[in-house]
Description:
The chain is an alpha/beta fold.
Amino acid sequence: MSDNPTGVGGHAPDSxxxxxxxxxxxxxxxxxxxxxxxxxxxxxxAGRSGTVPQAELERRKATRxxxxxxxxxxxxxxxxxxxxxxxxxxxxxxVWINPDWRxxxxxxxxxxxxxxxxxxxxxxxxxxxxxxxxxxxLRCGRAxxxxxxxxFTMVIGGSTSQPSQHGPLTSNSTSVVIxxxxxxxxxxxxxxxxxxxxxAHIVDSKQExxxxxxxxxxxxxxxxxxxxxxxxxxxxxxxxTPDLVIFSIGGGLRPRNPHQExxxxxxxxxxxxxxxxxxxxxxxxxxxxxxxxxxxxxxPAAGRDGGRCCAGTISVTADAGELSFDPPLKNHRDFVTxxxxxxxxxxxxxxxxxxxxxxxxxxxxxxxxxKT
Length: 372
């Protein structure tokens, strides 16, 4: 896995618009990622505003969004989706969204209206529910989106205060969890807002989660009421075995993410993992102190103008089985060392060892004793 993509100043060149990869966008407190193979793109969540996802799609000269996957109905995940749906700059394949019987919000209504309007005027193939039983394989060129959670029974049951096997289920419990594969190799786990109850269901289903990159759920917040955050973080990190853990957060005072117990659990499970927040956490830095963006990738980032970016938008590209990061992880580490007051992520450890996407997720299978 390469830490330094080709380009002046450690940044990827303009030709990265032809690359195969995934870009985890800095959208403040929220989530959005663009999976791309050249100009062919798929979007997973859209933050509170469509501005940053739209800017990245425009930068990539996207003509078609083959999939728009919305993990669940919270505004920090779907807020920007109406703008994406109503943008005629590209056609859209399928919108993937599950019902939520408890949602009664303005943004949920706007999303429904945007889907109907775009379908009526053309440029949208259709919309479907998304579960582990989804028959269609979600492809974007040489990329594949693997659905790991929830299963169909959880979706049709909906959020409920009635205890299930693992406690009450919320919208977060049934968040769609996606593992992104590039050229056949798993590269990134997008965990949305899945909580401890949802993770327990994933454990029960014996899903394989391993990937070099983990976008940590719920922005590093608490994983549900009466749950042990450190244990949750440790369990998830052990299952994913990542080289890089990303917390997609907004700078400022609230919410104070990532939670210190979450970071501690990640460190216990993976002492050498590289931790990066998209924006500066209030735990680490004075909320009124701005920073320069010289260390950032040249991609849209919500915290750039306000001087709130930490790692900012992070792109992971694959080339012949090798992964490259932009900004390079060394750039982020050097920035944290020089500019961040009391960084939770700062540890005296080397950068993650170099490894290919294939080696990052392959574990030796136990040998079978031959029958006699």
